[in-house]
Amino acid sequence: MRNLYRSVVNLLRTLARLREYIPFTRATAVLLAATVLLSTSLEVVSVGLLAQLLNLVLGTKSPGARPVTLALKFMPEASTVQLTVLFAVAVVVTMALKNMAAYGNTTLLARVERNGAIRLRAALFARLQAAPLDVFERHASASLVNLFVDESRRAMECLTVVTSTVQTVVTALLFFAALIWISPPLALATLVVGGLAGLLVAGLYRNFSRLGRDYSDANTAITRAASEAFNGVRVVRAAHAQDTMGERFGVANRSQAGVEERYRRASGQVVPAVETGSILAALVLLVGTYALLVEPGHMSQAKLTAFGLILLRMVPLVNRFFGTQAHLLYAAGGARAIVEWLGVGQYPVRPYGTETFTDLREGLEVRDLVYEYAPDQRAVDAVSFRVGVGETVALVGRSGSGKSTMASLFMRMRQPKAGTVLADGVDYWSFTPESWHAHVALVEQEPFLFNDTLGANVAFGCPGATREAVEFALHVAHLDDLLESLPDRLETPIGERGVMLSGGQRQRLSIARAIVRNPRLLILDEATSNLDTVSEQLVQAALEAAMRGRTTVVIAHRLSTVRRADRIVVLEHGRVAESGTWDELVAANGVFTGLVQSGFDTDVGGETAGS
Asked: How far apart are CA 100 and CA 94, in angstroms?
């Protein structure tokens, strides 16, 4: 019982932390309370009237019964049949009013739940949009999607279950008050028996909290398995690994179904056990009351009928109470998951400034830049170099040397631990995010394209782009042939992740997306990797057109893409190993020469790598 109490208290604390996302105004709270009280009060009244009706039908009415006395005040000459009809009508009217109040409560609560789900998902989405980049690197996208699809629903379900539990408790208390009015000793006996039954049933609840956590994990697993199978369908088919993915999905599918079955089995134990125990306790009380009180003449048959009817009406309330507790503990995992994710750290820790970035007139200076993925694990260690206006500076190095980390630092996707980037002598963190990203563009190794039209993908993040500007960007990116080949030109959908396009076309489309912004600073992060020779030549031509007249930082693994850079900065273990022009670095016979000789570059404009 103590564990059940602790679990419920912890859940209520969790829901309290979600209070700001639940649209509970004073008016809403008053209306909910009013409908609950009205429906429960009318239910108690209807049971009392039904008890009196049964007494009239069975001929066991007490002449001094209050409902009968009240009726006879208005109908002094009424016969038993007339009183029976009157009470029958009263029962029907009371039940109808009770059901109307219950419907109003359900409708109002559904609206609160709907609006709460909208606000909760919006807050969660905004929170994750502002989360540090490493959050998305540590967690599978399927687990994040599951938050919006299932966990948020379960979190709001908790609100409904709590309200239902409150309504059940209020109804039970009103019924118990009626029992006290009929016979205080019998009400006390009912309370004692009910308490003992509760202690026996509490042991059945131990597994529900754990089942709720298992359900969250199982849902995430099945979502991840399906997502990977569908998103990686080309890889799966190329490797003829359909059976492997089927087995992986099968494991997740069976696990999720197993959790569902265990929950249903556990909840299936609670309801029959509670119902059997409640009926047994009620019958023991009724039989004992008849034998000890009614038969000797200490209690009237009419009171026993009323007492028995109310007691039997309380049995489903007890069932409902324990059943909702089981569901509440099961659904609590969703609320806990949402609260945890709503508490995720926000990026950046250091706020952006208020200055407006408009242009580069003097150039960039990277000054002692430091970034750590974890304490004492530096990906970038005191890196310094300059990029003049209109210059192209290439960053090269082996995998893990910190090149791509530099790209994310330039884009302010990560926050440096120390050092800074100066734009015309001004700390780049001083600029507003809107102005910085309006004039700084990134072309990545694996561009992400949205399941939208060609034009929408080019103009993404640049809502002011005109049709002419989009078509010009496509022209610069050498995509005129693609535009002409599409049936609806810019309005043609390109599929999820640009599946309708080739790898080279997707890469050039990301270049067009950068060009349409007319950036002052262009960051190219291994933009020609993973392409065949023909595609690479087309992409390289598009890059050269995009770089013309712009300040550019080229981050490359393949040295053929940086042959014509004004300066090359060689990174090794996160530090600047050397820098200079191609010829200067080759002549120095240092780290860069080792990169060239190791086969990083085998064909540069028809020349050999070593030339």
From this structure: 10
Question: Which of the residue ranges 110-119, 443-452, 465-474 has the most confident prediction, judged by mean pLDDT?
Answer: 465-474
- pLDDT, one tens digit per residue, over 458-504 is 888 887 788 888 888 888 888 888 888 888 888 888 887 777 887 77
* Mean pLDDT of the 175-192 span: 81
d(CA 223, CA 212): 17
Span 549-565, average pLDDT: 77
**Cis upstream peptide for 519 (omega within 30°):** no
**What sign results for the dihedral spanned by CA atoms 409, 412, 416, 420?**
positive
Q: With contact defined as beta carbons under 8 Å apart, do 535 and 503 qualify?
A: yes
Selection from 195, 159, 209, 154 nearest residue 3 by Cα: 209
Q: pLDDT, tens digit, for every residue of 275-287?
A: 677 777 777 777 8
Domain limits, the chain: 2-342, 363-600
Q: Any idea what the Cα angle at residue 369 is, between residues 368 and 372, rounded to 5°?
A: 130
CB 496 within 8 A of CB 451: yes
Whole-Å CA distances, 182 to 7, 46, 173: 36, 16, 14
Return d(Cα 381, Cα 419) in angstroms, integer.
Answer: 10
d(CA 357, CA 336): 41
CA dihedral for 66, 69, 74, 77, sign (positive or negative): positive
- Indicate the class that CATH gives domain 363-600: alpha beta
Q: Report the top-level CATH class of 2-342.
A: mainly alpha
Q: How far is CA 587 from CA 111, 452, 582, 593, 595, in A?
A: 74, 49, 9, 8, 13
Could you tell me which residue, 529 or 214, shows the higher pLDDT? 214
Q: What is the rounded distance in angstroms from the CA atom of residue 107 to the CA atom of residue 554?
A: 59
* CA dist., res. 559 & res. 186, Å (int): 91
Alpha carbon 131 to its chain's center: 13
164: nearest Cα among 6, 272, 316:
316
pLDDT digits (tens, 9 = 90+) for 188-228: 887 787 777 666 665 555 566 666 667 767 777 777 777 66
Question: Helices (H) and strands (E) in the chain — how many of each?
Answer: 21, 10
Q: Output the average pLDDT for the chain.
A: 78
Q: How far apart are CA 330 and CA 322, in angstroms?
A: 12
How many Å apart are CA 601 and CA 599, to the nearest integer?
5
What Å distances lie between residue 230 and 49, 245, 495, CA to CA? Answer: 62, 10, 13
Model confidence at 21: pLDDT above 50: yes
Q: Which amino acid is at 419?
A: G
- What pLDDT is attached to residue 421? 92
Query: Does residue 34 register a pLDDT over 60?
Result: yes
Same fold, 2-342 and 363-600: no
Residues 6+ apart with CB under 8 A from 501: 449, 482, 494, 495, 509
For helices 26-58 and 66-74, the axis angle rounded to 10 degrees is 90
In the chain the first and final C-alpha atoms are separated, in Å, by 81
CA quadruple 147, 151, 153, 155: dihedral sign: negative
